[in-house]
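does this look right to u?? fe (ii) ion version
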Amino acid sequence: MTDTENVSQTISQTASNSDAVTATAQFLAPVVLGLQALTINGKQAHWHVRGANFIGVHELLDTVVAHAGDWADLAAERIVALGLPIDARLAAVAEKVAPTAVPAGFTKSGEIVRDVIADIDKVLADVKAAIDGLDEFDLSSQDIAIEIMRGLEKDRWFLFAHVAE
Ligand SMILES: [Fe+2]
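got this back:
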């Protein structure tokens, strides 16, 4: 037996138990897909916003997109670190994520901010479900969901402040 064969036989793919692995994939996969969709639809909004506060909203939407991409990576790599794959190909995202509220074409800033907030709220519902569902299975995965919740709610506030009465 070579050293390589020996290693592959004695080191398991993950140190976590199977319930933790399964729950992590179950609860974080929708979060990954929703955040990947937000990166694409947020860019759509970034490119087509018009009207009041143009520069502020245009630049803030890029921040929202960048954060969404970072958090998708964080959640996806937690699943993979525990040994499972995730299908986050574009077709899978399109199939499993609800349609965006962001329209095609140029859109007034107040309207497009509300649309992006609506998209964020759909992601937040999955993030909240992940926090609740992972509580009894894997606290490290839950911690990732909590980090995403904290950050995404802050970005939501930054957007909301543009349209608050
Ligand atoms: Fe840009």
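The mean pLDDT is 94. idk if thats expected tbh
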